[in-house]
Amino acid sequence: MAVNSDVSQVLGTITILRDPSQWTEWIGSIKTHALNHEIWDYVDPNTTAPKIITEPTEPDDECTDREYKRFERNYRKWETTKTSLRNFWSLLVRSIDQTQAKDLIAEHVDPRDLLLAIKKRFAPTEKSRKAELKYQYYTLQKSPRTRERETWIREWREVVRDLKTAKMALADEAKEDFYKANCEIDRILNGKGDRDRRLRYFLSTLRR
């Protein structure tokens, strides 16, 4: 099956899903793609009432021009949605580790069914997800000696965002801990720095 150019573009930026630790980032990218193509309501794995794609029925010969034009618009929209869903299935297939999901790909030709199966296999449990977030959070409090500060800040923002989403108490401690770690970086890098300037900097960073 030929890969749609839009799908190919997304594949150039998305993380290939190989284990539960990558689930949050992966599903975020997948959801963004689906929202951009107005198909998330058809494939959302967290709803019990997904939207169903239905081919419009062509009106009979007695319909008015206005009614037939409405049918043509709805038919074009149906075709677009159908194509987007087919491309979405291809995106799912190509954005997961093939060696761990061959059976899922073979069993599920419906894009939402495949996404549900992927979620069941790769999404971490709430307990394991919180444990992973806690580990990431405490790891980031160590001074980033071997990485760029901007990379460290980006990772910090992502973890704090996920802590808030998981409604973990650690999210409330983030600003103070971030400030302490940031001061330690300044001490290591140059042994100086304006306390008020650093405070303004890290507060603006967390709000990005």
Average of per-residue pLDDT values: 80
Number of strands: 0
Q: Helices and strands, in N-to-C order?
A: HHHHHHHHHH
- For the report, how would you describe the main beta sheet? none
Distance separating the two termini:
40 Å
Q: Give me the secondary-structure category.
A: mainly alpha
Q: Taking Cα atoms only, what radius of gyration do you get, to the nearest Å? A: 23 Å
In total, how many domains does the architecture comprise?
Answer: 2
Low-confidence segments, given as residue ranges, are: none
Estimated share of beta-strand residues: under 5%
Binned, the helix content reads: 55-70%
Shape: elongated
Count of helical stretches = 10
